[in-house]
Structure formats: structure tokens, C-alpha cells
């Protein structure tokens, strides 16, 4: 399943735009709504191919969501896309009441989530969107780890009626999955590496860091760590969380999101109810971020505790606590 030797890098937004065109070719009632970010989100590819099915509403995110809702009422599969700072940042009321309450077939696919947005800084670093979206009834939340995941999950959500929120990262990232690894199911996590001493659960760009941490823990400390890509944050894989707790004990979660209310919070909730074990959450510690050039994003992750070495330290600390 994993690319053991290759270290290809690919752009999630490019994968989104290309797959949108592919799906549009197959599905005549698929439409796309943009908010003056169609070049950046790569939805312009869809507009160039199907100009009569592409609606650019300009910098008006509430309209973006409301128009997508209207298209869904008319029987369309509506994709609505812009930056995460604006969707959901500027239109939560419309998402809640125009899409989720009537349970409409609208797919919100956003980019520029988390800390890794480049030089735009804290105002554009959406670190509370997972928490917000997963708390709304009927909304499902996906955080793919790489471009291949985006393509597979696009095919899943277009075949599944109802609202979705899919969160993409701005920078290109390492490719984890092969194209033939079609193993994505809404509500399930993927075990990328088995282990018995602890479990590391991650989503988005942090999955690569989790895999690197597992390698370091095995090489330097002789620990066998299970790594889970928890791309489906809502619904979340309760069965897998319980299984990991029973089989490996300690669970460490990491995400490019506020430590409050995100994927780690969801894992902790499930663990507390089904099989309580020590759950250590890594994320942004309830603070705003800061600007960073593209070549500084790795350092930014390190500063905010999202590095592979921080995962290693957390696993070792958790195991020491477990033995007391």
C-alpha cells in the first residue's frame, strides 16, 4: 500500500481539479460554484471544460453556499470551493441552515487549511474548521493525507448523497498511497503500518510525520508503533479506535488544527466511552499561528509541536506514564 522507495510530491488542489473534470465528464448534473479563487483551487479546469456548469460568484462566500444549496434543491450535485478561512470562516450560518438542516447534496471542498498557508499568517490559518464542521448535524468531515486520497475520496463523496466537508492543504505533499490503493471508505480509518507498542493516529499532512515518527521509534527505541490515517473524522472509525486501544494501549493523535475539538478530540471521546486508554493529543495549543514562507513551513510545524520528533517524544512520555 505505501510507497516504500518513491518519495513523489503532488498537489491536493491539482488532484481535486483534475478529478472534478473527470467526474463532470461522467455525471451530467455535477456543477461547481467558486468564490474568486477558482485558479487557486484548480476548479477553473472544470469551468474551462463545462462553462455552463461553473458559477463564480466572486468574493461572496455566503452566496457561494446559498447558491450551491439552491442548485442541490434543483437536483444537482453541487461542489462549492474556496479557502478554509472563508468557508466555513465567513458562512457558518448558511452551511448550517441552508445545507445541513435540509440535508442537501452539497460538497464543500476547501484549501489553505491549517498552519501551512504560507505568508498569509494567522488571519488565513483556519485551525478551527474541523471542530466547527463536525459539530453540525448531517455534515461529514474528511481530511485526506495526499493527492491520491483526494482522488479516491472525491469518487466516494460524489456517490454518497448529503453534505460533506473535505479539507485540503495548500502545499504539495509527499504521496503515501498508490493509485491502485482504492481502500477508502467513509467512516473508516486506514492502518498504514501495524504495531503493538502504541498507536499514532493522524490526518492530512501530519500522516507523513506520523510514518516518519514510527520509523524513528523503531530504529532508535525498538518500539513497534501502529500508524492510522484517520482521514474520516466524521463519521469516525469507532471500531478501529477501540481495537487500537485494546491491542496497543497508548494512542497519540496529531493534526494541523487546534487541539480543541478536532480529530484528536473525536478519538479521545470514543476511547473514553468504549475502551479508555491514555490518549495524547498533538495539535495547535489553542493559539493563533504566524506567517511563514513556503520553505519555512517545516520549521513552523516544529515550533507548534507538529513534527515527527514531537510525536516520538510524546509516545515515549506516554509509555513511561503507562508503566507507572
What keywords describe this structure?
39% helix, 324 residues, 7-stranded mixed β-sheet, alpha/beta, 12 helices, 2 domains, Rossmann fold, 5-stranded mixed β-sheet
| Largest sheet, strands/sense/barrel | 7 strands, mixed
Tell me, what is the CATH class of the largest domain?
A: Alpha Beta
Ends distance: 37 Å
CATH architecture of the largest domain: 3-Layer(aba) Sandwich
In total, how many beta strands? Answer: 14
As for the CATH topology of the largest domain, it is Rossmann fold
Strand order of the largest sheet: 3-2-4-5-7-6-12
Helix content: 25-40%
What is the chain-wise order of helices and strands? EHEHHEHEHEHEHEEEEHEEHEHEHH
> Can you count the helices?
12
What structural class do you assign from the helix and strand content?
Answer: alpha/beta
Give the overall form: globular
Give structural notes.
- The protein has 324 residues and is of the alpha/beta class.
- The protein has 2 domains: 9-174, Rossmann fold (3-Layer(aba) Sandwich); 190-323, Rossmann fold, CATH 3.40.50.
- The chain is built from 12 helices and 14 strands.
- The protein has helices at residues 12-26, 38-41, 44-49, 61-73, 92-100, 129-134, 147-158, 206-221, 238-248, 263-274, 297-303, 308-323, and strands at 9-10, 30-34, 54-56, 77-81, 106-110, 140-142, 164-167, 173-174, 190-193, 198-202, 225-229, 232-234, 251-258, 279-284.
- A 7-stranded mixed β-sheet has the order 3-2-4-5-7-6-12, with helices on both faces.
- The longest helix is centred in the middle third of the chain and has 16 residues, at 206-221.
- It is globular and about 65 Å long.
Amino acid at each position: 500500500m505505501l510507497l516504500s522507495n518513491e518519495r513523489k510530491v503532488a498537489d491536493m488542489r491539482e488532484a481535486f481539479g483534475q478529478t472534478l473534470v473527470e467526474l463532470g465528464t461522467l455525471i451530467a448534473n455535477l456543477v461547481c460554484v467558486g468564490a474568486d479563487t477558482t485558479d487557486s483551487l484548480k476548479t477553473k479546469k472544470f469551468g474551462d471544460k463545462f462553462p455552463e456548469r461553473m458559477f463564480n460568484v466572486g468574493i461572496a462566500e455566503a452566496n457561494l453556499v446559498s447558491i450551491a444549496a439552491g442548485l442541490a434543491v434543483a437536483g444537482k450535485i453541487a461542489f462549492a470551493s474556496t479557502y478554509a478561512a472563508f468557508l466555513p470562516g465567513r458562512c457558518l450560518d448558511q452551511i448550517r441552515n441552508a445545507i445541513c438542516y435540509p440535508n442537501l447534496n452539497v460538497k464543500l471542498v476547501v484549501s489553505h487549511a491549517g498552519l501551512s498557508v504560507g505568508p498569509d499568517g494567522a488571519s488565513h490559518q483556519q485551525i478551527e474548521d474541523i471542530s466547527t464542521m463536525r459539530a453540525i448535524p448531517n455534515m461529514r468531515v474528511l481530511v485526506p493525507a495526499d493527492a491520491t486520497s483526494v482522488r479516491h475520496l472525491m469518487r466516494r463523496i460524489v456517490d454518497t448523497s448529503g453534505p460533506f466537508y473535505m479539507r485540503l492543504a495548500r502545499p504539495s505533499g509527499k504521496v503515501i498511497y498508490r493509485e491502485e490503493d482504492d481502500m477508502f471508505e467513509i467512516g473508516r480509518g486506514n492502518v498504514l503500518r501495524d504495531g503493538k507498542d502504541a498507536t499514532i493516529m493522524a490526518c492530512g499532512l501530519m500522516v507523513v510525520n506520523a510514518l516518519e515518527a514510527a520509523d524513528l521509534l523503531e530504529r532508535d527505541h525498538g518500539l513497534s508503533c501502529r500508524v492510522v490515517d484517520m482521514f474520516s473524522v466524521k463519521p469516525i472509525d469507532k471500531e478501529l479506535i477501540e481495537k487500537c486501544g485494546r491491542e496497543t494501549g497508548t494512542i497519540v493523535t496529531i493534526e494541523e488544527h487546534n487541539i480543541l475539538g478536532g480529530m484528536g478530540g473525536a478519538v479521545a471521546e470514543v476511547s473514553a466511552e468504549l475502551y479508555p486508554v491514555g490518549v495524547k493529543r498533538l495539535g495547535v495549543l489553542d493559539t493563533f499561528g504566524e506567517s511563514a514562507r513556503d520553505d519555512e513551513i517545516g520549521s513552523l510545524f516544529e515550533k507548534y509541536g507538529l513534527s515527527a520528533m514531537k510525536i516520538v517524544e510524546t509516545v515515549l512520555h506516554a509509555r513511561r506514564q503507562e508503566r507507572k
